[in-house]
Hints:
Its cofactor is Mg(2+). With 169 residues, this protein is mostly helical.
Amino acid sequence: MDGVLCNSEEPSRLAAVELFAEMGVEVTVQDFVPFTGTGGDNILGGVASAKGVKGFNTEEATKRFFEIYFNKYAKPNSSIGFPSAHELIVQCKNKGLKVDIASSVDRIKVDANLAASDLQLSMFDAIVFADAFQNFKPAPDIFLVAANLKIHNYVTKKYTLVSPLFHHF
Length: 169
């Protein structure tokens, strides 16, 4: 969803920079790029490890990150959605296609990003969150789980993936 339906990557990185600044650790948005798509805990923890932050508490940091992100960057109807995302979803639904979201972030962030993107949860047939798989990108787990959804009594034989990341699976 991040980077496909909405422009949340940069705002997420800015919120993370603010989080680290509160801890007295200087980071840039570029420090987070190598961890993109690997899950929220891995993004924060990866940068903390790379910067040598001692005693980093991922759970507390994630909670504070969400506070910053939700209050400053992902307010409802803040229009972080890509202009063509809504149109693409509607066209797919009008053609009878199932439209799912597969995201490596927690449900709380998916919900916030949908609200900030002016997209309704009801537009999607199913949503896969970070807790549905073990291995984050570049492992293909998220896509395999999404392709084998049985939530709505369907398993797809054809699957089109729209992703901002380029990996060979």
